[in-house]
Amino acid sequence: MPLVTLADLFFRFNAIGLLLALMLFNWPRLNQAERSLSAALALCLSLFLLLTQPLPEWRFNPLRNLFLAGTELLPLMLCASAWYLINQRVPNWLNKPSGRWLLGGSLLANSSVFLLYGSDTHWHTVMHLLSALAMCATLYYCLANFNDDLVNHRRHLRLILATFALLHCLLLVGFELSASLIRRDPLFLLANAVLVFCLLLLMTCLSRASRVPRQESAQADTQPVPVKWQSTYQALNTLLEQGIYREPELTIGTLAEHLAIPPHQLRVLINQQLGFNNFSQFVNQHRLAYAAEQLRDVAKARTAILSIAFEAGFNSIGPFNRAFKQVYQLTPGEYRKQALNQPQISEKTL
């Protein structure tokens, strides 16, 4: 057996072992949805590794259709993982029994087609199209608003999932759309196996390191700001009192420049000490408080709500209205009307 093939099998089966260890290591701290998603992702990735291994006598065996069925679902599992990573919740339609039945029936029907007919169907081509769409969605979920994310562990996972998505796109091109010489090239297969192994090894290291920050963040609300952050924290409060949050184009990078610290240190301060997961969430809290103060001001009763939104730092009225109602449970117009009518109501009562 060639050395390249031996190396490929070494990295490939070690990657499967890492997958199992990674899932068992994190299993106790996962909720039910996360356990289901991680198990499905690990199963599909393992079947993908078995399907793309370099030995033809192993690849073309009675279980090939099973490997193929799992491989075709891998892009959808990656997309679902990216969506859950960003939103930290199950889609609303999956909370309904009809939604769960629909999902289960779709997965069963898709897997049955590949188990019975393999790749000799038009459905295989349709799945390639769905895979491409799922990979585009995965890249969007992972990379959109990446700089807004303050949780370092989640930022690393977003990059890993984006890399997996790009890897799968390359494999789709290599195995399905390119010449047969490329898809059977041992070096091409070895490179993919090594990359998957390295990504899983990185995920294992991140999983071990993420346990400490989670414990610290759980106690962040009851502990004062550490001494090492005091000067930066005071400088940050000074900038906030000066109204820096009202700058429409304010980013974590520009705020870090004002504080003369690296952006990653500012992310740690805002996330672990102040309890915010997103920079926009942190900035919007101050913008909304400022806007609410302006709406309560009798002297600005005739000022347009759009002007107040722009003055607070919002670029348009739509995001302002949605963010305001989410926090105050009222639209800006309803909030202003209620706030300005309260003094009159109290005077009539007296």
UniProtKB/TrEMBL annotation:
Domain HTH araC/xylS-type: 234-338
Leader peptide range in chain numbering: none
Domain of life: Bacteria
PROSITE patterns assigned: HTH_ARAC_FAMILY_1 (PS00041), HTH_ARAC_FAMILY_2 (PS01124)
Residue spans crossing the bilayer: 6-25, 37-55, 67-86, 98-117, 123-144, 156-175, 187-206
Keywords: DNA-binding, Membrane, Transcription, Transcription regulation, Transmembrane, Transmembrane helix
Protein name, UniProt field: HTH araC/xylS-type domain-containing protein
Species: Pseudoalteromonas rubra
Organism lineage: Bacteria, Pseudomonadati, Pseudomonadota, Gammaproteobacteria, Alteromonadales
